[in-house]
Design brief:
The protein is mainly alpha-helical. The chain has one domain: TerB-like, CATH 1.10.3680.10. The chain contains 8 helices and no strands. α3 crosses α6 and α6 packs across α8. It is globular. This is Co-chaperone DjlA N-terminal domain-containing protein.
């Protein structure tokens, strides 16, 4: 477990460095998934339904199997538990993750939110929060939603 702890603390140090290098794809996916975990945990309850939603987002966005998505989420949960406060964490992600990666996560979130055909207020507010944390404008988020709706 110490190895994992060191690996994540090194990752967080790189991410929160004053001038972080752009993250490679695998690191970017881990950081973005950790942010989803942070948002899901922010209301004080983090239940099976929220874990399954994160798994679906990861599977959709990164073309992972169910077990691959669950493994990514488990790593993201560990990273999130060691990550700094949300403001610093998200600023680091914004600085280190390319805009197209961030917008793609918003698209995946919309895909999951719209999958059941019902737009719930809590999902809308979650999406607004994540978009804002990632520096995605309301307009770009709405356009991402429209792209997903057009696919259906």
């Amino acid at each position: 477990m110490d190895y994992m702890h060191d690996m994540f603390s090194d990752f967080i140090n790189r991410l929160t460095h004053p001038a972080p290098a752009p993250l490679q794809d695998a690191d970017a996916r881990l950081a973005l998934t950790a942010l989803l975990v942070r948002v899901a945990r922010s209301d004080g309850s983090y239940d099976q339904e929220e874990r399954e939603r994160i798994d679906r987002i990861a599977a959709t966005r990164y073309d992972l199997s169910a077990s691959g998505a669950a493994d990514l989420r488990a790593q993201a949960e560990e990273l999130e538990s060691q990550a700094p406060d949300t403001v610093r964490f998200t600023r680091a992600i914004k600085d280190a993750v390319a805009y197209d990666h961030r917008i793609a996560v918003i698209e995946a979130l919309w895909e999951v939110a719209l999958a059941d055909g019902v737009r719930e207020a809590e999902e809308d507010s979650l999406l607004r929060l994540v978009a804002s944390l990632l520096g995605i404008s309301d307009v770009d988020s709405a356009m991402a939603r429209q792209r997903i709706e057009a696919k259906k």
